[in-house]
TrEMBL record:
This is ABC transporter ATP-binding protein. GO terms for molecular function: ATP binding; ATP hydrolysis activity; transmembrane transporter activity. Keywords: ATP-binding, Nucleotide-binding, Transport. It comes from the Bacteria. GO terms for cellular component: plasma membrane. The lineage of its organism: Bacteria, Bacillati, Actinomycetota, Actinomycetes, Kitasatosporales. The keyword Nucleotide-binding applies. It comes from Streptomyces albidoflavus. The keyword Lipid biosynthesis does not apply.
Length: 238
């Protein structure tokens, strides 16, 4: 593939405005006979304020897509741009810093820290970055309320239900108003009403904060809320 300098500038603009762009991304896991092509020449652009859903069977590469898009995993080939930075060109330390500043992850398992309360989970990333101020505290309160955990703000993960943990994980990911929000089957532990609320919150944050959002899901209600739906099959994206 040839890329003219004009195309290159257009790519930079798309990424530079805060969106997400994967260009010809391949990810091979393992080696030799056991090598798996988790991502096979994937192209994906998500503009700021856009909400994209990804569906596909188990093992098709959906979680790998999110891991590479957010810089948790380096692709074998191809480039990833996040919020104007080419993640794939950064050293590990810079990539981690870019991820912490610009990417919000919501995993299926909420990955909360056992020793921290819900409120502390939200404040920790800003504390690490030296950005913990009154505005951040206020936003934490608003998000905790928005996910219906106001009465749980002082609780630790072991005191929460699976659904409450998932909602705490969502609030934490939204805390930094990330340029890119990557959500992996977020509503598996939520009932229909809570699930609809979580999706509404994500859609709202996507519009308000101009977030480029990618959500992996099996939930048809979520697909309806998305601007676009892509299908992943054997590491290839429709
Ligand atoms: N650490 C790993 N080592 C080897 N293969 C892996 C690893 N993680 C995932 N895979 C394989 O990569 C493919 C895609 O996995 P994944 O991205 O988790 O799919 P999905 O999220 O759609 O279920 C699967 O075949 C899976 O078995
Ligand atoms: Mg998965």
């Amino acid at each position: 593939m040839t890329t003219t300098s004009t195309d290159h500038r257009a790519d930079q603009d798309a990424a530079g405005s805060g969106g997400l762009r994967l260009l010809d991304v391949t990810l091979t896991l393992g080696d030799g006979d056991t090598a798996v092509t988790a991502l096979d020449h994937v192209d994906l652009s998500v503009a700021p304020g856009e909400f994209v859903a990804v569906v596909g069977p188990s093992g098709s590469g959906k979680s790998s897509l999110l891991a590479v898009a957010g810089g948790l995993q380096r692709p074998t080939a191809g480039t990833v741009h996040v919020a104007g930075a080419e993640l794939t060109a950064l050293r590990d330390k810079e990539r981690t810093a870019t991820r912490r500043r610009h990417v919000g992850f919501v995993f299926q398992q909420s990955n909360l820290l056992a020793s921290l309360t819900v409120r502390e989970q939200l404040l920790l990333p800003l504390h690490i970055d030296g950005r913990l101020d009154n505005a951040a505290r206020a936003r934490a309160g608003e998000l905790i309320e928005a996910v219906g955990l106001a009465h749980r703000a002082g609780s630790r993960p072991h005191q929460l239900s699976g659904g409450e943990r998932q909602r705490a994980g969502l609030a934490r990911a939204l805390m930094t108003s990330p340029a890119v929000l990557l959500v992996d089957e977020p509503t598996s532990a939520l009932d229909r009403v809570r699930s609809a609320e979580a999706v509404r919150l994500i859609a709202e944050q996507t519009r308000e904060h101009r977030t480029a959002t990618v959500m992996v899901t099996h939930d048809t209600a979520i697909m309806d809320a998305a601007d676009r739906v892509h299908e992943m099959v054997d590491g290839r994206l429709s």
